[in-house]
Design goal:
Length: 291
């Protein structure tokens, strides 16, 4: 392999050592001649994540860079990994993304076919078949990607960082990830990239498996974080109110509602259109009955 990678896989991680091991092992088995590296930033894990990454550094066929920081959130970890990356193209994934053997090559070929600094490629994600079935996992991931079936160019609200590749310098010029956001940080960056001319294309052949089983409680926690993130995003960019409405923000909540219910209303409004990549089928009423 060449000393300089053409692509850097960016993986932020926190307390998911066993899942991260599967992720790193799958990336080390990629079927491609393109030189690439893996950059892992451990966001202050307290489990045996350090041991997992150190072993990968020592034994993996693909170069692995191991970074560690005090806990500051996934966005700060992504930004640090990007700063250390040597590739001109970034493949941004999560620590629970398990790539099929051809994922890296599929991203490379999609970029070669499209060309252009402003091109970004969205790969497909689906639930890891090794996990037990959960309807909440399917709602969170498969429903979103099913909505993209048959499409080629997609909007900035499909810039999902569980499996997306983009030019490194293009991303850096846009300011990178906002460390103040802890949800929707990927599509918030996608909106900023789109204002700079990003063209995002869907490549379902670049397939990854989501190795994260969601139960109802975890699914509803995600809804809370989505609502809170939309509020922060609105405060940052009130001019995007129409776009945020499509993602779930529908205006000031009633003052009499409990805080958790107001968040649920923001995340899962009834009767309003939603983004294809953030569509939810769990109505706020069900949330209230469950909580």
């Amino acid at each position: 392999m060449s000393d300089r990678p053409v692509l850097s896989v960016i993986i932020p991680t926190y307390n998911r050592a066993d899942t991260l091991r599967l992720c790193l092992r799958a990336f080390d088995r990629q079927e491609t001649d393109a030189p690439f590296e893996i950059v892992v930033c451990d966001d202050g894990s307290t489990d045996h994540t350090g041991t997992v990454v150190s072993r990968a550094v020592a034994t993996a066929r693909i170069p692995v860079v191991h970074l560690r920081q005090e806990n500051a959130g996934a966005n700060a970890a992504r930004n640090r990994a990007i700063a250390a990356a040597r590739g001109d193209r970034l493949l941004i994934v999560n620590d629970d993304t398990i790539p099929v053997p051809g994922l890296v090559e599929a991203h490379r070929l999609a970029h070669a076919r499209r060309g252009g600094r402003e091109t970004a490629i969205l790969g497909r994600m689906t639930i890891d078949p090794a996990l037990p079935f959960s309807p909440f996992s399917a709602l969170h991931h498969d429903a979103s990607y099913d909505a993209l079936a048959g499409r080629d160019a997609v909007g900035w609200d499909a810039f999902l960082t569980c499996n997306v590749s983009v030019d490194r310098h293009f991303l850096e010029d846009a300011g990178g990830f906002d460390p103040k956001l802890f949800w929707h940080e990927d599509i918030e960056l996608g909106e900023r990239l789109a204002r700079r001319g990003m063209r995002l294309f869907y490549a379902p052949e670049a397939l990854g498996y989501h190795h994260h089983l969601l139960d109802e409680a975890a699914y509803l926690r995600i809804a809370e974080r989505e609502g809170a993130a939309l509020v922060l995003w609105y405060r940052k960019r009130p001019d995007l109110v129409a776009d945020l409405g499509r993602l779930g923000l529908v205006g000031p909540p009633p003052l009499g509602a409990a805080a958790r219910h107001r968040v649920a209303d923001l995340a899962m409004p009834t009767g309003s259109p939603t983004s294809p990549c953030r569509r939810r089928s769990c109505p706020a009423g069900r949330w209230r009955r469950a909580h």
